[in-house]
Structure formats: C-alpha cells, structure tokens
C-alpha cells in the first residue's frame, strides 16, 4: 500500500476509527499524524497505534501529503481559515464531515483545493465499515485511487456520482450504526425487565444482529423479506413480534427517521 504522509485534523471518534483501520491493515504508524487541541485523545492514539501526535494543525498539515479533516462541521470554516496560508496545491484533502458541501471548502481554505468528500462510519475501526465517496470531475484518478485505498482499509467503499447522494449515505451508513445500537439497547432493556442478566441479554441480541447481517450479506440472491420469512413460522412466536412491529408502523418510523437525517444534512449545508 502507498505510504503517503497522512494527517488527521481532529482526533475524535471518527478519526480514531479511520486510524485504527489504517494501522490494523498495515499502514506505517510513523506516516500518520493526528492533531487535536486537547491531549488525552492524542495520548491514547499514540499509545494504541504508535502514530505521531501534535496540537499544531499547521505543522501537521504542512508536512502531510493527505489531510483528513476530522472536526465537527461547524469547525471546518475556522480550520480552513487557519490552514489557508499553506500551499495546498499538491495535497489531497479528504473531509469526513456531514452536511458541508465541497464548494464551501474552497471558500474556507481561500484557494481551489483538491477535495474528496467521504462519509465513513465507526465500524471502520474494526474493518467492517462502509465509506461513501464523492469527488468532482476536477479530482485526478491518482487522488481518487489514493483516497479509495486509504478508506478501504476500514471496510467497503462506494463512490456516488452526485454530491447530494452523500446525504443518502449518511442516512444509510454514516448514522445508521446508531439506529442498530438503539434497537439493541431496547431489546436488552426488555430482556432485563423480564429478568435476564444484562450481559446475557446483550450477548444474545448482538450475536443475533451479527448473524442476521452476515446472512443478508452472504445470501444476496435472497430478498430481505425472504430471510425474514424464513424465521417466521406461521402462527408462531416471531409472527407475533413482527405483527407488533408492523402494527406500530415501524417502516413509517424508519422512513421518517431517515428522511429527518437527510433533512438535517441538507439544513447543515445551508448553515456551514
Ligand atoms: N462519529 C461518526 O460516526 C461519524 C462522524 N462523521 C463526521 O466526522 C466529524 C467528526 O465527528 P466525530 O469524530 O464524531 O466528533 P468528535 O467530537 O469525536 O471529534 C472531533 C475532534 O475535533 C477536535 N477539534 C476541535 N477543534 C479542533 C481544531 N480547531 N483543530 C483540530 N481538532 C479540533 C476535537 O477536540 P476536543 O475534543 O479536544 O475539542 C475532537 O477531538 C464530523 O464532521 C462528523 O460529521 C462522519 C461519519 C460518521
Ligand atoms: O451525527 C452526525 O452528524 C455524524 C455524521 C454521521 C454520523 N455521525
């Protein structure tokens, strides 16, 4: 794998997940630098992965071939302004932020930068993530290939043709691990209420989720409805549970949740 110098501006949850994917798949830790204002997350990254750490965004960015912007969306503008005095013409800039359009970064950095917008998710940290990628026509094949190689260390990558499609990626993959954690939380709470120990309840619920996801993945010829049907004996227990979900309009609730997720990304695009 190419061992370009990669720096992360912002060393929070998502940057940590990507760094974990990189190092676990053999990327040289000495080629990775994380920059963050507060020290504890940096120290943990240095301890866990052996990467370089700093509180100085400018030095980190100046010395990197690839700059990954890992701060919250509202901080992209001050970070861009801070780095705008650097000559970024030869560098690839990768943003992971939701809801900040590619065009805005040229304003923030006060120059035409080579930017690829990505939408990863936290399972990247264990190699089973998914990252959506968008690049405008001006971005070179070399930079696209480099970005894809870096992000693929955390799992699957999917290019989208239109920037707007990244908002669907947010709803389907970037944010969605949280939906599944919520579902697991609710299952565990119900089982604990029924007398099960929390650890047993969690083990059962998470193993079932893992098994269901793997079955869906390993049987692409089977529809999701068929996989569900295979569990659902007529007049049996599953049928009662599924009927309860359908009566409670789970599908509509999921549709509302995903639509609101996308609407928030669109709103953020007008804010930042
Ligand atoms: N979490 C997720 O699942 C996903 C997040 N994203 C995107 O990733 C980005 C980061 O999110 P997430 O990792 O969750 O957020 P975190 O809050 O965990 O991380 C953001 C980090 O940025 C640091 N930071 C703040 N100001 C600066 C600055 N001026 N220069 C450098 N670093 C700074 C913060 O440091 P400190 O804490 O010390 O202030 C913090 O460590 C967001 O844009 C989000 O949209 C995308 C996909 C999924
Ligand atoms: O909640 C957020 O805004 C970010 C983007 C996707 C996941 N976390």
UniProtKB/TrEMBL annotation:
Stored HAMAP family: P5C_reductase (MF_01925)
Family label: Belongs to the pyrroline-5-carboxylate reductase family.
Pyrroline-5-carboxylate reductase dimerisation domain: residues covered: 163-268
PANTHER family assigned to the protein according to its UniProt record, in alphabetical order: PYRROLINE-5-CARBOXYLATE REDUCTASE (PTHR11645), PYRROLINE-5-CARBOXYLATE REDUCTASE 3 (PTHR11645:SF0)
Pathway the protein contributes to: Amino-acid biosynthesis; L-proline biosynthesis; L-proline from L-glutamate 5-semialdehyde: step 1/1
UniProt subcellular location: Cytoplasm
Major place of residence: cytoplasm
Domain Pyrroline-5-carboxylate reductase catalytic N-terminal: 5-99
Protein name: Pyrroline-5-carboxylate reductase
Enzyme Commission (EC) number: 1.5.1.2
Pfam family, one: F420_oxidored
Function as written in the Swiss-Prot or TrEMBL entry: Catalyzes the reduction of 1-pyrroline-5-carboxylate (PCA) to L-proline.
Any one GO molecular function term: pyrroline-5-carboxylate reductase activity
Signal peptide: none
This protein's record includes keyword NAD: no
Sorted UniProt keywords: Amino-acid biosynthesis, Cytoplasm, NADP, Oxidoreductase, Proline biosynthesis
Family annotation (PROSITE patterns): P5CR (PS00521)
UniProt entry tagged with the keyword Ion transport: no
SUPFAM superfamilies given in the database record: 6-phosphogluconate dehydrogenase C-terminal domain-like, NAD(P)-binding Rossmann-fold domains
Gene designation: proC
């Amino acid at each position: 794998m190419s061992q370009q110098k990669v720096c992360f501006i912002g060393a929070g949850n998502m940057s940590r997940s990507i760094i974990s994917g990189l190092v676990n798949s053999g990327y040289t830790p000495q080629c990775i630098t994380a920059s963050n204002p507060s020290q504890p997350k940096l120290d943990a990254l240095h301890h866990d992965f052996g990467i370089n750490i700093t509180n100085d965004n400018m030095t980190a960015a100046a010395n990197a071939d690839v700059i990954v912007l890992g701060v919250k969306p509202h901080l992209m503008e001050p970070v861009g302004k801070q780095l705008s005095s650097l000559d970024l013409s030869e560098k690839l800039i990768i943003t992971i932020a939701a809801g900040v359009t590619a065009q805005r970064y040229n304003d923030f950095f006060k120059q035409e930068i080579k930017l690829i917008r990505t939408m990863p998710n936290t399972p990247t940290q264990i190699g089973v993530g998914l990252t959506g990628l968008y690049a405008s026509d001006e971005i070179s094949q070399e930079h696209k290939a480099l970005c894809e190689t870096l992000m693929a260390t955390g799992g699957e990558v999917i290019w989208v043709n239109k920037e707007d499609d990244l908002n669907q990626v947010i709803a389907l993959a970037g944010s969605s691990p949280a939906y599944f954690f919520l579902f697991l939380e609710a299952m565990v709470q119900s089982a604990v209420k029924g007398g099960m120990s929390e650890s047993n309840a969690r083990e059962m619920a998470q193993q079932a989720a893992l098994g269901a996801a793997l079955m869906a993945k390993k049987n692409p010829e089977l529809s999701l409805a068929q996989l569900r049907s295979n569990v659902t004996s007529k007049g049996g227990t599953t049928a009662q549970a599924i009927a309860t979900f359908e009566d409670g309009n789970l599908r509509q609730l999921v549709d509302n949740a995903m639509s609101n997720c996308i609407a928030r990304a669109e709103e953020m695009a007008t804010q930042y």
